[in-house]
Specification:
four-stranded antiparallel sheet; binds phenylalanine; about 30% helix
């Protein structure tokens, strides 16, 4: 895990009441506070540490041993058996074991990924879980599965209306290892179908592990950045991390209105000019090169000054049996104009590390 990523761990953007992520989190929590169930209110967690065991992140939620998300290409390993959580689902089992029966967990999650305007290696999720007791389905004369899935759907449709106002919605079948059945909820917003959240009825074996074998539960998870970008009109995911007051001064607790209707949206301040750098290189023969590793290296060297990393050309020389990639790096600050000098310096570091760490041959 690079310094650049480690540095993000104690930022707690979702705990800042006047930050768009903090505002959205509060709006979601308010909705669940208004949901009265026989167990009273939902308990809110927003400061569980993001370094978790691989058991919590993967095994406790039934992620198969050979699942791609376990690879060091997708997940940040801190040690061999601890990771930066890649989803808030990592806390489901532990909280159930601690006796919680309905709760939300909001937190920063970490994924190695490509670089563009909607992807950042750290983002934020809200997880929700609710457990039902046998008498709740028995008294209604329906199956436990029916109760959990009906309740899940009405609760989340209500949440979406709370966030987006009246809008068209559809349920799409999905797959998650920890729920069955699993769904994604999509809304028709500004002319497009958008996925808002993933959810499902919790696999019984997770409840078994928490000694709750005779209960049923639902769970959902949603990403805050994507929703905040849509609702507040925020054009680039890096803006959430800026300390520029031209950004922060535009947001305040309590400003939110459903669907953004009648709410003052984010007014972009001028975009500073981009600076493009291309690099062409032969890949090492052992197929160790991956785009995520390249992006991680660039993030470490350029921080939030890198806007996009894009493969623009690829060819294989049949005689040599070697493959060449050409990547275009877009550098742009959200705060100021970059000088040639500083971009050249970053690019030099990137090139040097490409050779020494990724073992490519620059052309
Ligand atoms: N953890 C899932 C993700 O990160 C979301 C999810 C949570 C899905 C809970 C179902 C139930 O994509």
């Amino acid at each position: 895990v690079s310094e650049y990523i480690f540095d993000k761990i104690d930022k707690g953007l979702h705990r800042l009441p006047d930050h768009p992520l903090g505002i959205l989190k509060a709006v979601i929590e308010n909705y669940f506070t208004s949901q009265h169930t026989e167990k009273g209110h939902f308990v809110m967690f927003d400061d569980l540490a993001p370094v978790v065991t691989t058991y919590a992140n993967f095994d406790s939620v039934l992620v198969p041993v050979d699942h791609v998300s376990r690879s060091t290409n997708d997940t940040y390993y801190v040690t061999e058996d601890t990771v930066l959580r890649c989803h808030t689902s990592a806390h489901q089992l532990e909280l159930l074991k601690n006796g919680h029966r309905q709760f939300l967990v909001t937190g920063d999650v970490y994924r190695r990924d490509s670089i563009d305007a909607t992807h950042f290696p750290v983002f934020h999720q809200v997880e929700g879980v609710r457990v039902f007791e046998p008498h709740e389905w028995e008294s209604r004369n329906i199956s436990s599965l029916e109760l959990a899935s009906t309740e899940l759907k009405t609760t989340l449709e209500g949440l979406v209306r709370h966030l987006f106002g009246d809008c068209e919605m559809r349920w799409v079948d999905a797959y998650f290892p920890f729920t069955e059945p699993s769904y994604e909820l999509e809304i028709f917003f500004q002319g497009e179908w958008l996925e808002v959240l993933g959810c499902g009825v919790m696999q019984s074996s997770i409840l078994d592990n928490a000694s709750l074998g005779d209960r049923r539960a639902w769970a959902f998870g949603l990403g805050l950045e994507r929703l905040a970008m849509i609702l507040f009109d925020i054009p680039d995911i890096r803006l959430f991390w800026t300390s520029d007051t031209r950004f922060s001064a535009q947001f305040s607790a309590g400003m939110f209105k459903a669907g953004g209707v009648g709410m003052k949206k984010f007014a972009s301040y001028s975009k500073y000019p981009p600076c493009y750098k291309d690099a062409s290189f032969w890949l090492p023969d052992d197929s160790s090169f991956t785009e995520n590793t390249l992006c991680e290296l660039v993030r470490d060297a350029a921080g939030s000054l890198v806007e996009e990393v894009k493969l623009i050309d690829e060819f294989t020389n049949p005689k040599l049996g070697r493959t060449s990639n050409c990547y275009r790096f877009t550098y742009r600050s959200m705060e100021r104009s970059l000088t040639d000098e500083e971009v050249n310096k970053i690019q030099e570091i990137v090139r040097a590390r490409l050779e020494s760490e990724l073992r490519v041959t620059l052309r």
